[in-house]
Amino acid sequence: MESKLSFTSRYLRLGFVLAAGVAACLLGPTTARADLIISVQSVTAAAGSSANGIDVELSNLGPSAVTIGGFSFGISIANLDISFTGANTSTAAAYIFGTDSLFGPILTGPTSGQSLATSDLFSIPFSGITLDTGTTVGLGHVLFDVSPNAASGSFPVDLALFPTTSLSDESGNDVPIDTLSSGRITITAQAVPEPSSLSMLLSSVGLVAVMVGWRRRAGASRTSTVLTEATVPF
């Protein structure tokens, strides 16, 4: 009887140990991986302006570094008064591949005006850059124009979903993106242009001409009066 109880007790203890191990596995930390975010900046532009810029960026907010060998992205906007015209590597944050861009500095890809897609690769095959945790880099500086008739307001700039927007490692394997974050373009009223130097000069010339004409007329009037008085007999 005592042996039987001892046997049962041992198995009960073993069961508790196994249960505790399973719980530790379930509740313990998971394998660390990078949390990658591709985001679009928010910028302001005036109606009637051109060659405005908006950046697309990649941030690593995870606990570990990740290697990136290539990327692609697509952006779009519903406002017909805003037109995307091109893209390049002149981003505010350091460009992801620096001078080792395969396609840069001009990254202009297919564009329909309200949408644009582009991509780039690290110039050395089977290699890439290491994006450390807490690092943000630029993926592209997108140029856009705003129609003179554009209404004021704030309009979302959306990122296209996978596979248009994607990341790859040094071997071309997909690197999952955790978050796609939209940006906004805010349009302000067209600024009233300041008078140009030429306009001011022409105004001054016109004023001088009016004054000269007035003086000539006044002088002619005085001359006429003198001549009239000179013809009167004594």
- Mean pLDDT over all positions: 80
Shape: elongated
SS strand fraction:
25-35%
The H/E string reads HEEEEEEEEEEEEEEH
Describe the main β-sheet briefly.
7 strands, mixed
Unreliable stretches (pLDDT < 50, length at least 5) are: 1-33, 223-232
How large is the radius of gyration?
Answer: 36 Å
Find the CATH topology of the largest domain. Answer: Immunoglobulin-like
Helical residues, percent:
25-40%
Structural category? alpha+beta
Terminal CA distance reads 167 Å
- The number of distinct β-strands equals 14
Number of helices: 2
Number of domains: 2
CATH top level of the largest domain?
A: Mainly Beta
Q: Which CATH architecture of the largest domain?
A: Sandwich
What characteristics describe this protein?
234 residues, alpha+beta, Immunoglobulin-like, 2 domains, 7-stranded mixed beta sheet, 2 helices, elongated, disordered N terminus
Structural features, described:
The protein is an alpha+beta fold. It has 2 domains: 1-30; 36-188, Immunoglobulin-like. It is 26% helix and 33% strand. The chain is built from 2 helices and 14 strands. Strands 2, 5, 7, 10, 11, 12 and 14 form a 7-stranded mixed beta sheet that branches. The N and C termini lie far apart (167 Å). The model is unreliable at 1-33 and 223-232 (pLDDT under 50).
Layout of secondary structure:
Blueprint: H1 2-27, E1 36-40, E2 43-46, E3 52-60, E4 66-68, E5 70-76, E6 82-88, E7 115-121, E8 129-131, E9 135-146, E10 153-159, E11 166-168, E12 174-175, E13 179-181, E14 183-188, H2 197-230
Parallel strand pairs: 1-13, 2-14
Antiparallel strand pairs: 1-3, 3-9, 4-8, 5-7, 5-10, 5-11, 6-9, 10-14, 11-12
